[in-house]
Amino acid sequence: MTLWSPPGTADHDPLPLLAVHDGLEYAERTKLTVLAADAIEQRRAPAHRIALLHPGEREEWYSASALYARALAGEVLPAVARAAPQRDRAVGLGASLGALAMLHAQRRHPEAFAGLLLQSGSYFTPRFDHMEKGFARFGRIVRFVRGVVRDQQFPHPVPAVLHCGLDEDNIHNNRRVAAALALQGYGAPLDARPGGHDWDTWCQGVRDHLPVLLAAVWGQD
Fold first, then answer.
1. Segment 23-63, tens digit of pLDDT
2. Which run of H or of E encompasses 138?
3. Region class of 170: left (phi > 0), else alpha (psi between -120 and 50), else beta
4. E strand map for 45-186
5. 2-218 homologous superfamily
6. How is the chain split into domains, by residue range?
7. Which residues, 6 or more positions from 40, have their beta carbon under 8 angstroms from its beta carbon?
8. Residues with Cβ < 8 Å from 56, sequence gap 6 or more?
9. How far is CA 105 from the centre of its chain?
10. Which residue in 3, 92, 108, 126 has a CA-CA distance of 20 to 30 Å to 63?
11. Mean pLDDT within 165-187
12. Neighbours of 59 (CB within 10 A)
């Protein structure tokens, strides 16, 4: 994990935290820390730190793994808070399997999260994702997603935004999950716009939605 702090802040300054799956790649491909610094300077988002989480065994960790969710909420985020004081609960950001894993972690450990930005989530369902059946953890993901879309209520919703390209296969399952989360109190608007399952699409989603979400969840300084 790599921890980024905005310019002009000290390690002892209490700040809210953005936790990002595939963090180093997000920082490289979307210029996430540059965008964050600009949004903070322009007062479009509150000052915050970013935990750039390393993916490790990505296909295992990010595939609705209960062990990973417990480690993220019970070990990783508390370790960040010990290293640098944290104000408020974390907001989670991820794309593809990283988005799935962030939603899964919030469902299992809602006390850890205050909001979610989920991009092109890999919410596999047999109807729409038969081409993914060869994926080793396909069944585990399907079981988790089935539970999400079947739940009529969830006791701990948080503000969430979903973002997905209209040209990608994931658009169908993202629509289903967004509708379910909206009914459960997440808000969860789905921004579906032209684009694919790629960093160009996700970069635009970060630019458009992340500062607004962070300001809504944490308030302005």
1. 999 999 999 999 999 999 999 999 999 999 999 999 999 99
2. helix 138-150
3. alpha
4. 49-52, 90-95, 113-119, 160-165
5. Alpha/Beta hydrolase fold, catalytic domain (3.40.50.1820)
6. 2-218
7. 6, 46, 47, 48
8. none
9. 10
10. 3
11. 96
12. 12
